[in-house]
Amino acid sequence: MNKQEFLLELERYLRSLSTIEKNDILQDYEDHFAFGTEEGKSEEEISKALGSPKQLAREILADYHIEKMETSKSTGNIFRAVWSVIGLGFINLVLVLGPFLALVGLLFGGWAIGVSFSLSPILVLISALFNPGTFQWFDLFFSLALSGLGFFISLGMYHVSIGFKYLLLRYLKYNVSVVKGGK
Questions:
Q1: Nearest-5° angle of CA 52, CA 57, CA 61?
Q2: Which of 15, 16, 38, 120 sits CB 3.0–4.6 Å from 146 for a disulfide?
Q3: 95 and 175 in contact (C-beta within 8 Å)?
């Protein structure tokens, strides 16, 4: 594959990036080809050393989305980063998606418990309005205790969620470095 074919294929796989970022990356690889030809290598040798443009684009996109997740930890950026790392290889489907879904499920469950416990006094009062003969003071006091517990659970889940984003970012970076052949 010559330089032009390599760069066209790489550009096609990087279509989700902005034009400026895509052009910057393509310029880097044009420079790489220029330095290689100055050293006496053929364009085919250089493109073979770089590997598949498809795999190279996957690695670039994974790095890009992880970088974006570092600057803005929005839910969309987190999902894009996870998805781009999964795209690096089939084994990542198990190594990234499985733990990610399990931890998201645990986070969701923790938040659901915290919020539902916090709202329990409201439910007791609504029940007393619609069923006046069933009101028990014990129910109200127990729901107030649950509400306090729910507040602390929600507060803990807030900190756990922040920690989850940080650990996920570190894990994705580690996974990308392993896929690229690093430590």
A1: 155
A2: 120
A3: yes
Residue 170 CA to its chain's centroid (Å): 11
Residue the block writes with tokens 């006091």? 141
Q: Which residues of 118-156 are buried (b: 16+ CB within 10 A; e: fewer)?
A: bebbeebeeeeeeeeeeeeeebeeebeebbeebeebbee
**For the segment 18-33, what is each residue's pLDDT rounded down to a tens digit?**
888 888 888 888 888 8
Cβ count near 61 (within 10 Å) = 21
**120 with 146: CB under 8 angstroms?**
yes
Q: What share of the chain is helix, strand, coil (3-state, %, to 5)?
A: 85, 0, 15
Q: Is the pLDDT of residue 157 over 90?
A: yes
Element (H, E) at 66: helix 53-71
Residue 43 CB partners (closer than 8 Å, separation 6+): 1, 2, 3, 6, 33, 36, 37
